[in-house]
Amino acid sequence: MIETHDLTKYFNDFLAVDHVTFSVEPGTIFAILGPNGAGKTTTVRMLTSILKPSAGWARVVGYDVIEQPTLVRSSVGVLTEQHGLYHRMKAIEYLSFFARVYRLSPEKRSTRPLALMEHFGLGDALDKRLGEYSKGMKQKLALVRAMLHDPPVLLLDEPTSAMDPQSAKLVRESIKELRREERTIAITTHNLTEAQNLADTIAGIRKGRIIANGTFKQLSERFVGLPLMELYLTDHLNGAVSALDGVVEVVEQGDRWLRYRTPLPQRDNPSVIRRLSGEGLDIVTLSEVSQDLEDVYLQIVEEDEGQEHAHDHHPAD
Ligand SMILES: Nc1ncnc2c1ncn2[C@@H]1O[C@H](COP(=O)(O)OP(=O)(O)OP(=O)(O)O)[C@@H](O)[C@H]1O
Ligand SMILES: [Mg+2]
After folding, report:
1. Residue 268 in contact with residue 262, Cβ under 8 Å?
2. By CB distance 3.0 to 4.6 Å, which of 30, 40, 156, 287 could disulfide with 79?
3. Domain of 193: which CATH number?
4. Which tens digits make up the pLDDT trace of 128-140?
């Protein structure tokens, strides 16, 4: 439904998006996750034919973003960073205007804006001028506009930024609802939890480059590794670590504690306990350390920085 190949954008000499390649399957949610300035918005703007790529290509619903901009725009619902709202306009006028632009049938033109506004709790604010809308209200209105023409693909640039927790939840639920309707959705976010909760696949982007791409599970396996266990002993470690040699990988240790990784806790933990008991060591607690996307994300960035420094020191560079 969305496909890019070596999509690249230069602003003069500055490389903002660097050979980005990904594809999004129909009926799935794709998250572009990255820090400020990573190139998320620039990527979305190219996907919506607002911004011309410097190199590479992108297709949305099969339409080429360079060759078929009009078809692309009619097939996607877009939420951008700058909403371009007209301050003196009333919300209802604004939506009616777009309903005509999107060529909605007369019947839908009168029902759909109201239904969507009510869904997002803005049913009472239809006659309010947009200049009087709060930030979060504007964001919701922009989302209503993006959904107005029932597009098969939605491109949402930070859909929940500026929203209170309840509204953010409502928006996340609406996005999941869109997926249930077999729509394809790409969102950008620097909210790790949001990406983890919402997205089927996640692309980590940094300095314009994709540094990781896959399901959350794949990313955690790659960057966090195997389940991490933490173990406390009543006494000093002494023989503990050597007793575990070849059984599990000890990653960190202190005076009376250690952390190790194991592919199969249910198989390895009992043998770890047996071995330590064999050394005369008593275990106080043994538990799994939870590893969330925050860890994954920091790992991704650190690994990428490591590679960058390796490049820096390469004599051929
Ligand atoms: N029109 C432009 N002219 C020059 N540079 C630009 C332009 N638009 C974006 N950039 C630069 O491209 C880089 C990527 O910007 P972009 O807005 O895509 O980042 P982002 O990932 O959306 O960040 P944020 O999380 O802050 O929204 C930044 O370094 C930015 O300064
Ligand atoms: Mg942005």
Report:
1. yes
2. 156
3. 3.40.50.300
4. 999 999 888 888 8
The verdict on 236 and 205 lying in the same domain is no
Nearest-angstrom CA–CA distance, 168 and 64: 32
45 ligand 1 Cβ < 6 A: no
How many CB atoms sit inside 10 A of residue 70's CB?
9
**Report field, pTM of the whole predicted structure over 0.70:** yes
Query: Is 243 found in the same domain as 97?
Result: no
Domain span including residue 110? 2-221
Residues 171 and 253 in one domain: no
Q: Are residues 256 and 206 in the same domain?
A: no
Does 124 map to a domain? yes
Q: Are residues 153 and 137 in the same domain?
A: yes
Interacting residues of 249 by C-beta distance below 8 A, sequence separation 6+: 226, 260, 261, 262
Cβ of residue 37 lying under 6 Å from some atom of ligand 1: yes
206 with 255, same domain: the answer is: no
Region 189-197 average pLDDT: 84
Q: Which residues, in sequence order, are bridge partners of residue 213?
A: 203
- Nearest partner of 115 among 148, 86, 77, 91, judged by Cα: 148
User: If you take atom 30 of ligand 1, which residue's CA is the nearest one?
Assistant: 37
Does the CB atom of residue 183 touch ligand 1 within 6 A? no
Residue found by looking up tokens 């540094």 in the block? 211
Based on the fold, state whether residues 139 and 181 are members of the same structural domain: yes
Instruction: Note the pLDDT tens digit of each residue in 252-311.
Output: 889 999 999 888 899 999 999 999 998 888 999 999 987 766 666 766 677 667 666 665
